[in-house]
Amino acid sequence: MSAQPMALWLEIIVSLLLILGSLFVLIGAFGLYRLPDFFMRLHGPTKATTLGVGSMVVASLVFFCAVGDGLSLHELLISLFLFISAPVSAYMLAKAAVQQRLPLAPKTRGKPWEQ
Fold this sequence. Notes:
The chain is mainly α and 115 residues long. The protein is 73% helix and 0% strand.
């Protein structure tokens, strides 16, 4: 069984989604490295990286729908689990950090445990 060649516009869409996803993951990793305290660092992997991985999964979905045997539920399930588990894990990490009263950077406004 040989693979069918993909149309140019599909290749462009897949390439753009992969580049966009890679940029989001890079921005998320950079934010995780550069932001000063835990509460700010939590945004890097939960927001930007989730969008990046989601974009890559959509690129995979488009590619395998065009070249493969049709729609695969694997990519949809990966996206579903990713978008459900990332906010839940971020909430649990933030709740644990509030209970531990982790130190804040001087630029951080407010104290989450004083509300």
